Amino acid sequence: MGFIGEDFLLSTEAARRLYHGYAERKPILDFHSHLPVADIATDRQFQNLFEIWLEGDHYKWRAMRTNGVAERYCTGDASPYEKFLAWAGTVPFTLRNPLYHWTHLELKRYFGIDVQLDEASAKQVWEQANSLLGRGSLTARRILKTFAVRVLCTTDDPADDLSAHRTIAKTETAFRVHPTFRPDNALAIQDRAAFRAWLKRLEKASNKSIRSLRSFLDALEQRHDAFHAQGARLSDHGLSECPVAHCTDGKAATIFEKARAGKATTSEEQEQFAAYLMLFFGQLDARKGWTKQLHLGAYRNANTRRLRELGPNTGFDSIGDFRHIAAVCRYLDRLEQENALPKMILYNSNPADNYAFATAIGNFQDGKIAGKVQFGSGWWFLDQKEGIELQLNALSNAGLLSRFVGMVTDSRSFMSFPRHEYFRRVLCNLIGAEMERGELPSDEQLLGGMIGRICYQNARDFLGLQVPEDKSA
């Protein structure tokens, strides 16, 4: 028998009432994910539990490596069943890691499997899950409908042609899938060959010849317009630090010419060019009323040998120890001075920065848009119970929790939607405990209303996305 009961993570009666009454049945607006949009366009049917659950999950790979599992069972040539068995054998060793909670929550919500996964139960779990997958009831689109996902935002490069998004828009009415403009490759001039290859892709997508900085910016703006026409209302940047070096138009043009010609650029030039583009992207977002997301502070690709062997996003990243706040505030201030500060969501990867981020957002609220600058949900290594609570506490103490736009999965897995449930349970447990201790009023309607807004309505109202009508929300 499993341990994911009706009141999982809900330690007080007040928490249980708040969750079951105000959070549990809210639909999902997942405004930041890395799900492959092609899988949704084709309504992919997963052939087995490995495909839907383990195929690209670097959280699990990290745990398996730590447990002494060889790489062939993570990213290598082992069979799907062998890889699943290796994961099943690792699960008992993940106690107190969020993977233990997520694993069993996902098995129960997707397949009705309520046993603790280990080597002994692995065959039963594999066969039961595969039987359900074989019936076609858990295709990519049916999963979104089953979990009441009203809107999903994917993460897309400006050079992507958005054809999969157009397919979904023409054929689906139960939910919306919107692209998110993520131009990180535009800043990556340090990799000369990759940047030049990406420029060719951008030329093709924008149908513009790129021969100068001006034509480069025009091509990026054309793609920004195309994303907007396809329903995009968010941009996103995954940066170690926010670049804020001073860079004139002339200097940016010189740096771009070097990069376009395949010449080496200095680290100083790379930062100057990135800072120049970040101002440009902020201006584009502000003109269209978009929301800009900044994911800051990850220390990426720490293991050079593994990066060469396996590539990025394979589980060799960690929390970085950067100094963010001066740079972030300078960036927002520059946009503010130009009256070009868009709505923003700032995510940090280091919990030591929570209060700094939570106070920084208060510097740039405009008195017009409620919560215009947001402190985003616990991200990456912080999207577990303690990390979620730390973010909620910092935001509560330094800002307005009631205006928070809530949780995102930030996931590459179609099995990740129960993370919204996980967040909602943690939120209700935190508020319910304070309610019972008399630290918050015993006013269920007041507190429940706040919880409902955090779980769904705030994001719906803040982001301006096209959301299928849902009278129950």
Question: What is the topology?
Answer:
Blueprint lengths: L12 H11 L4 E3 L6 H5 L7 H5 L4 H9 L13 H11 L7 H14 L10 H13 L5 H7 L2 E5 L9 H9 L4 E3 L5 H4 L4 H15 L6 H17 L4 E6 L9 H12 L6 H22 L2 E6 L1 E2 L4 H7 L7 E2 L5 H13 L5 E6 L5 H7 L12 E3 L9 H14 L19 H19 L7 H20 L10
Parallel strand pairs: 1-2, 2-3, 4-5, 5-8, 8-9
Antiparallel strand pairs: 6-7
Helix pairs in contact: 1-19, 1-20, 11-12, 13-14, 17-18, 18-19
Descriptive overview:
- This protein has 473 residues and is α/β, with parallel strands linked by helices.
- The protein has 2 domains: 46-134, uronate isomerase, domain 2, chain A, CATH 1.10.2020; 140-463, Metal-dependent hydrolases (TIM Barrel).
- It has helices at 13-23, 37-41, 49-53, 58-66, 80-90, 98-111, 122-134, 140-146, 163-171, 184-187, 192-206, 213-229, 249-260, 267-288, 304-310, 325-337, 354-360, 385-398, 418-436, 444-463; strands at 28-30, 149-153, 176-178, 234-239, 291-296, 298-299, 318-319, 343-348, 373-375.
- The strands form 3 sheets. Strands 4-5-8-9 form a 4-stranded parallel sheet, covered by helices on one side.
- α17 links the parallel β8 (343-348) and β9 (373-375).
- The mean pLDDT is 96.
